[in-house]
Structure formats: structure tokens, C-alpha cells
Amino acid sequence: MKNSIINSIANLDQFGKKVIRLGIVVVFFWIGALKFFTYEADGIVPFVANSPFMSFFYTHPSPEYKKHMNKEGELIAANHQWNTENNTYGFSKGLGVFLVTLAIFVALYKVAPIPSMIASLLIGVVTLGTLSFLITTPESWVPHLTDSDWGFPYLSGRGRLVIKDLVILGGAIITMSDTARVYLSRQKNK
Questions:
Q1: CB-based contacts of 34: which residues, under 8 Å, 6+ apart?
Q2: pTM reported for the whole predicted model
């Protein structure tokens, strides 16, 4: 009985790959769609503004953004206007289109394996970019206010949001590899 349970668990890898693919599709589609909403665009400002790879998308990158931050659920008209002029919302919408497109291609791996494989590769690149925020974004770490626990290794809410991309990176590698197998199997059967 024990071996039969362990054997069943050992054979869950294919189901796990499907769950990973579904998870990547849902996360990238959902978060990509949210990039069209003000609160989500406002939320990524510290990451983009501090990134040496992305700050050029903004008219006024770091540190000016700190004076114009809206909290989640808050809409201060003057901050919104500044973010409009900063290209915060334009960049966020472009990123949203990109993320939704990647999600769709990852989902279509059986129909379009090569574009799906490339989409998985790009998701890996995106996650590496996101992980770079741990180095470039001061808001990724608990600030030094009054507590003795601050800085590294104390992840802030933003830092905890970023670190999960290690798992997505592994998932992107799995979906890329799995899609390559689908493609090679079709080529072999032609």
C-alpha cells in the first residue's frame, strides 16, 4: 500500500507541469490585464524608476517619483497628473499588452510550439528583470525607521512580491522545455 501511494506521487510530474503552465498563464494574463488600471501602474513606479534597464521609459525617473506616490486604493489628482506626464500609465499599458501576449502564447503551446517556447524564454527574461529589483529598488527592503530589523535580509511587501519570481523562473524553464518536447515530437512524427 505504501509503495502504491509513493508510486502514484512519483507519477504526478506531468500533472505538475500542467499546473505550472496554467499558473504562469493565469498570473501573466491577470497581472498583465491589471497593468491597465491606475493603482497597478502606480505600484510599479519604484521598480521601474530605479531600474537601470527600464527607467528610461519614464520622463522623471528616480528619486522624483517618491513625492508623487499614491497608496493602493488612493487617488490624489495631482499625483495622478504627475504620473500621466511621467509616462507611468503609458509604460504600464505597454507592459500589460506584452505580459498578456506572453500568457496567450504559453497557453497555445500545442497550437504554436515555437512562439510558445519563445514566450516561455521571454518570461524567464522578465523574471530575471523582476529579480533585479531586489538590487535596484530600495523599497524592496524594510526601511530603517525605529525597528532594529531593517535592510537585508528583511524583505518589505514589495520585496516579497519580487522574490516569488524565482518560482516563476523555474516554471518558465519547465514550460519552455515541455514545449520544446512537443515541437520535437511533432517533427519526429512527420
A1: 40, 96
A2: 0.91
| Torsion angles phi and psi, residue 60, rounded to 5 | -125, 80
Sequence letter at residue 85: E
Q: Which residues is 155 bridged to in the sheet? A: 141
Alpha-carbon distance values, 43 to 25, 64, 77 (Å)? 22, 15, 16
Q: What angle do CA 105, 111, 114 make, to 5 degrees?
A: 60
Task: Give the list of residues 6+ apart from residue 124 with CB closer than 8 angstroms, or none.
Answer: 169, 172, 173, 176
* Cα 46–Cα 48–Cα 49 angle in degrees, nearest 5: 65
Per-residue pLDDT tens digits for 118-135:
999 999 999 999 999 999
- Residue 71's contacts (CB-CB under 8 Å, 6 or more residues apart) are none
Rounded Cα gap, residues 132 and 50, in angstroms: 10
Which residues, including other chains, have CB under 8 Å from residue 17's CB and lie 6 or more apart?
174, 175, 178
CA dist 17 → 148, 149, 172, 186 (Å): 42, 38, 10, 19
Q: What is the pLDDT of residues 40-98, one digit of tens each?
A: 999 999 999 999 999 999 998 878 899 999 988 899 999 999 999 999 999 999 999 99
Between CA 50 and CA 46 the distance in angstroms is: 6
